[in-house]
Fold:
Amino acid sequence: QVQLVESGGGLVQPGGSLRLSCAASGSIFSINAMGWYRQAPGKQRELVATITSGGSTNYAPSVKGRFTISRDNAKNTVYLQMNSLKPEDTAVYYCNFRLTLYSGSYHNDYWGQGTQVTGSS
Structure:
């Protein structure tokens, strides 16, 4: 059974920083990609950043230059370093892992439980 556990959310002043982490546990054959998404009240869930197994990254224009996604393959963990936080960054942040559980099987997406990030004065 695969589980994703997020941590690191909280309340910070505008201009502050937070570091989110998400660790996967269970029987995993391979991790194809990892990502972070966020959803503010009344809004659609949106992509924040992704990183592939090869290390390629992609960022939403609104966070590019302020946020950095990284990974630790040995720990099955993805991180999101958030700097220069703005009130508009306030949302629930969800991690996503695209996983293959068995050799030769099709991939599936798994989601963390979500963690609240608030950038407010």
Notes: The chain is about 0% helix and 55% strand.
